[in-house]
C-alpha cells in the first residue's frame, strides 16, 4: 500500500453530536485515479459512501452505511475490460483503547461476549479516518478473479489421444526380456 492516504475524511470524535452525524464521502477524479493505480484496476468510475456516525455514552463510535462503486478490471481469461458494481455495507464499532476502555469495568464484574458479534475496533485517538474505513470495505468488494461474460478457458489438450493404453509394468517387462 502507498504511504500517502488515498481518501482522507477525518472526523473529530468529540464533535459527534448525541443525535449522530451524517457524512457523505465521494471520491474526486484524482482520488479515483490514485485508487485505481493502488488496487490494480483499469478505472474507478465512481466511489461514494453515505455514512451515519453515532457516539455512545462510553465514548464508543459506531459507523454504518452503504458504499457504492463502479470499477473496471481486466478479465483473468480474455484480458478484456470488465465492469463491476460494488455495494458493501459498513457496520463498525470503535471503542476507546488502552486504559480508557478498561476503566469502565469493575474488577471481578461479569463480562458478556456475543460470539456472533463482530469485535469492536480500537479507537486510536481523538480522530477517526472515515476515508480509510471506506477504502477497506471497497477493497473487500473487489472481485479477485473478474471474468468477462462468455469468457472460457481453452480446453486442456488431451494427451491420451493416440497413445497406447499399455501398462507401465508391461513396458518394463518387455525391456527386461530383451536381455
Radius of gyration: 27 Å
Query: Based on DSSP secondary structure assignment, what is the total number of beta strands?
Result: 7
Q: Count of helices? A: 4
Shape descriptor reads elongated
Structural class: alpha+beta
N- to C-terminal distance? 66 Å
Fraction of residues in β-strands: 25-35%
Helicity level: 10-25%
What does this structure look like?
With 179 residues, the protein is of the alpha+beta class. It has one domain. Helix content is 20%, strand content 32%. It has 4 helices and 7 strands, in the order ββαβββαββαα. It has helices at residues 29-38, 99-102, 130-141, 168-177; strands at 10-12, 21-26, 43-55, 61-74, 81-96, 121-123, 127-129. It has a 5-stranded mixed β-sheet with strand order 2-3-4-5-6. Strands 1-7 form a two-stranded antiparallel ribbon. Strand 3 (43-55) and strand 4 form a beta hairpin. The longest helix has 12 residues, at 130-141. It is elongated.
Amino acid at each position: 500500500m502507498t504511504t500517502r492516504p488515498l481518501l482522507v475524511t477525518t472526523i473529530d470524535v468529540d464533535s459527534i453530536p448525541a443525535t449522530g452525524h451524517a457524512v457523505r464521502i465521494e471520491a474526486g477524479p484524482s482520488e479515483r485515479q490514485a485508487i485505481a493505480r493502488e488496487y490494480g484496476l483499469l478505472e474507478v468510475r465512481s466511489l461514494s459512501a453515505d455514512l451515519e456516525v453515532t457516539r455512545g455514552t462510553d465514548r464508543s463510535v459506531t459507523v454504518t452505511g452503504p458504499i457504492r462503486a463502479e470499477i473496471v478490471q481486466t478479465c483473468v481469461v480474455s484480458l478484456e475490460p470488465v465492469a463491476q458494481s460494488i455495494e458493501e455495507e459498513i457496520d463498525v464499532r470503535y471503542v476507546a483503547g488502552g486504559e480508557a476502555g478498561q476503566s469502565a469495568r469493575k474488577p471481578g464484574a461479569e463480562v458478556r461476549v456475543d460470539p456472533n458479534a463482530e469485535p469492536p475496533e480500537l479507537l486510536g485517538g481523538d480522530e477517526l479516518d472515515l476515508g480509510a474505513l471506506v477504502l477497506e470495505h471497497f477493497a473487500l468488494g473487489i472481485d479477485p478473479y473478474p471474468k468477462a461474460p462468455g469468457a472460457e478457458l481453452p480446453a486442456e489438450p488431451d494427451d491420451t489421444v493416440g497413445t497406447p493404453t499399455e501398462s507401465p509394468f508391461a513396458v518394463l517387462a518387455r525391456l527386461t526380456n530383451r536381455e
